[in-house]
Amino acid sequence: MLDSIEESYKVLYPHGHFNVGFTSRDFKTVSLEIITDTLSYIYEFNIDEPRLLDTLTAYKLNAAKINALIKQMHDIRCTWINYSDYYVDEKKQTLILMSIKPTALKAPFSYAKYYVLTYFPQPQYFDSEGRLLDKRRLRRLRKINGEVFRRINSKVCYAVTGHFR
Amino acid sequence: MKIYNHTGIQYFIKATILTAGIALFTNAGKALTPVHLVLPGKVTSTQQQAIEYLQKINELKSSAHWPNIKPDLFLKNLKNNIHDPISIYPGKGTNFCGYGALTYLFLQDDPLGYASLLVQLFIDGRATFRNVSFDPSPAIKQEAGDLKYKGVLDINPAEQMWFLTLADHYKGYLNFFNRDYNEGDENTFWASVNYAKFNRMTRQLLNYNYDAMGADLMRPRLKSLYNYISEKMKTGTVVLFINNRIVHKKDHIQVKLGVPTHFIVAERISIENDVITFIYWDYGHRTQMQVSTAFFKRIVFGITWFTKKETDAE
């Protein structure tokens, strides 16, 4: 399912840049960011609100497929998905960042934790403990949003963090 | 900001001192009565003057003061900023947003001043501008050009140098416990900007008149926030100090501290059926959001209004 969400997003993104996720605990409020050359637009909708589809259509995005993606994300409590850029040897690279809210009970008054996954387009370097390394300096850990990531496979890493994006 | 890392008595002591600091040093007293300041000014410059100044610099040699800055990348970064001030990017996860907003205004007010100041800082390792002397610490000079994982800021050494220098030079009460730079401090209280510090920086570096209304912990008391901001935008540039944690949510915590965290530059505002459509600049691009007037009132803590003292230089 996770790979399916990542694949759908990867296919849809080139036709119109957008980031999407859920900003309420009950997964009913959809936050949608539509990114154009001149402006980024931030919207919030109820998941079943017709305005969501109308807005996607107005921006000439594939409303049906993006809506299907949102439903998929909702079903597995995927809180956020976006493209993120990073630089290696002064060249821009991109990765897909996806976060999931665990369903397990947490201790009272403790902070919410999210599993954040990063999908790289090419294999990455890791140290003996499976921590993601900087390509340029193989002894330096590569941090994303201030977090150290660990290997799932050569292209996918994870971190447990207090923020979903 | 890592405020959740503090525990027990340490947290209590820090919270007490910070609260006292807020009470002493914020603009709370100005919340109802805007202060109008007029500065002695020089003629500000045009974008063309800055472009011509940079064109004359054919080759920039490496600077012993900034060992991790590549001069060609530095010059390219300066030229990009002059040509496209919107692209100024304070970096992912940093607390540089206040310095970013200041730089965005600086580039529109005095691009030649900006370019010559940064070139002087690069070559000499120190610089003076409008009676402000910047003499960055060795830790800053070592780090500039080597910041990583901050998005496009990674390849913009001039911005790294400038933001680190500003954070090193200007101190407010939020920087009280962390005054000296250590690796990673661009993401911590070391780099934070409170409202009074932001206004102080802009007063000293920009050739603008300004009014400030609001404070770090008190929202401005206005009959109509929308009317006030839209009126000010007709005659000047408006910077807002907002609570970004509820605009740009990153977690599902329901009870959040009602404090401002982010500086944005207002670009356009309109209202229809109690919904405000608002376009602002931050982080290298413009964003449009639509919010209710009640929500807008909830997020705005500071309004700083700038007007040009002189027209651009001929």
Structure, explained:
Chain A has helices at residues 2-12, 50-58, 63-75, and strands spanning 17-22, 29-35, 39-46, 78-88, 91-100, 114-119, 143-144, 147-148, 150-151, 156-161. In chain A, the strands form two sheets. An eight-stranded antiparallel β-sheet of chain A has the order 3-2-1-4-5-6-10-9. In chain A, a hairpin with a 2-residue loop joins strand 7 (143-144) and strand 8 (147-148). Chain A folds into two domains: 2-76, no CATH class; 81-161, no CATH class. Chain A is globular and about 50 Å long. By secondary structure, chain A is α+β, with helices and mostly antiparallel strands. Chain A has three helices and ten strands, in the order αβββααβββββββ. Chain A starts with a helix and ends with a strand. Chain B folds into two domains: 3-39 and 208-308, no CATH class; 47-195, no CATH class. In chain B, the strands form two sheets. In chain B, strands 1-4-9-5-6-7-8 form a seven-stranded antiparallel β-sheet, with helices on both faces. A two-stranded antiparallel ribbon of chain B has the order 2-3. Chain B has helices at residues 8-25, 47-55, 71-83, 97-109, 111-124, 138-143, 157-169, 195-205, 225-235, 293-299; strands spanning 35-37, 127-129, 132-134, 208-214, 237-242, 262-272, 275-282, 285-292, 300-308. Chain B is an alpha+beta fold and 314 residues long. Chain B has ten helices and nine strands. Chains A and B meet through strand 3, strand 4 and strand 7 of A and strand 8 of B. Strand 3 (39-46) of chain A pairs parallel with strand 8 of chain B.
State the end-to-end distance of chain A. Answer: 20 Å
Spans where pLDDT lies below 50 across 5 or more residues of chain A: none
State the secondary-structure class of chain A. alpha+beta
- Average predicted local confidence, pLDDT of chain A: 90
Summarize the structure.
The complex is a heterodimer of chains A (165) and B (314). By secondary structure, chain A is of the alpha+beta class. Chain A has three helices and ten strands; from the N terminus they run αβββααβββββββ.
